[in-house]
Amino acid sequence: MKEIKINFNKANLDLKEIFAYADKVKEINEKMEKFEGEGSAFLGWKDLPNNINPKDVQRIEDCAKKLHNDGVEVLVVIGIGGSYLGVRAGIDFVFGEYPGSEKKMEIIYVGESISSTSLVEKLKYVENKKFAINVISKSGTTLEPAIAFRLFKKMLEDKIGKNNAKDYIFATTDASKGLLIKLAEKEGYERFVIPDDVGGRFSVLTPVGLFPFACVGLNIKKIISGAKSANDIFGSSDLVSNLAYQYAVARYILHTKKKYPVEMIVSYETCHRFFLEWWKQLFAESEGKNEKGLLPHSAIFTTDLHSLGQFIQEGSKVLFETILTIKKPKYDLKMFELPQEENNDNLNYLAEKSIHEINNIAFDATIDAHSLVGRVPNIHISIEDYSEESFGTIVMFFERAVAISGYLLRINPFNQPGVEVYKTNMFKTLKKPI
Ligand code: PA5
Known about the structure:
Helix content is 47%, strand content 13%. The protein has helices spanning 15-19, 22-33, 48-51, 54-69, 85-95, 116-127, 143-160, 162-165, 179-187, 207-216, 220-234, 243-257, 273-287, 309-314, 355-373, 388-408, 420-430; strands at residues 4-7, 74-78, 106-110, 131-137, 169-173, 190-193, 262-267, 295-300, 319-326, 378-383. The strands form 2 sheets. The chain has a 5-stranded mixed β-sheet, sandwiched between helices. A 5-stranded parallel β-sheet has the order 3-2-4-5-6, with helices on both faces. Strand 7 (262-267), helix 13 (273-287) and strand 8 (295-300) form a beta-alpha-beta unit. The radius of gyration is 23 Å and the shape is globular. The N and C termini lie far apart (49 Å). Bound molecules: 5-phosphoarabinonic acid. 5-phosphoarabinonic acid binds next to loops.
């Protein structure tokens, strides 16, 4: 497994406080392993890396290869929430934020809002490009992706004809429920199944993530293998050796005993922005119920030190930070010395230091400033590198953590009843037929 380290030295927590929950965590985990407890019908995510059928992996890779061979330039991924964030998180985590790099095709995300401006911009963007569509919706009824799908499907059909278009449309949805599966069967689209027992925010290791990952050229077998070895370790009932569960307990103590209402997750890598968005959904939808739960917030440092830094340092003491750093950057470069007469930026003092080294020094300086001077507890999680295995590992780390954390709060971590309220109001006004 790619190594993950966690450090609570600056978290204003004693390891003894954490280990006092060893029996409680063991009890919760054992129940979970027996598929008992609230929400146990949605525990499929924890065995995904072990249960994935090699034939399904092969089919995903074959479909992606067909698109590469056909010269498809852009994959339009249509989805929202759990059917979008994990895809974007994984691609940016491994390949970085910019098109080009090693990506085998460009990817654009739609159906993640109802912004008319965004939709028109993206329709115009693909109009003259060779594009394919992956529409992702477990329920098959979510309005945002459904609107986008109708628009992009029409554009593709108008461009290459209905009969050809069906070879470039891929539907990732429930095996039998919802409108999307019926439409996909009727039109003859290639279909990928989201298992019944896996909720949206836990679905990144199903075809929801795996098909777009394969399309852009990520090695999906490596992602699965990273998640599998992480699951063996982070599924253990032994709190003393299980870092994911230690993290769950630490944030539980900071929230319920030390009364912090907000957890801010921070990364020093800009390409983690969507990983942090994925994390926010995972924790917000899992824990924010029965008027309980930490508010998950996120920031990229040092970027946001220039906007949020003042508040974190000296503002109200409402938050603790969980900091992610990468041990080995994907790329690095060194600062260089200029002749003294050209040292107009006065940066010669950095000569021979690498940029990653400077980023690490900023991290050390900030963690001390925030925790020691600003009295903001800091948990530090270190990830090995940018690889597919590391992505699979950190996904499983947080999925395991949120399950324990939710059960410690005595809520069902696997439902999201509150998401329906705005939809009911909206559909009433839109006069959606029942
Ligand atoms: O976690 C969740 O369940 C939600 O965020 C869903 O993923 C999101 O609402 C999209 O739902 P669907 O995949 O059914 O379109």
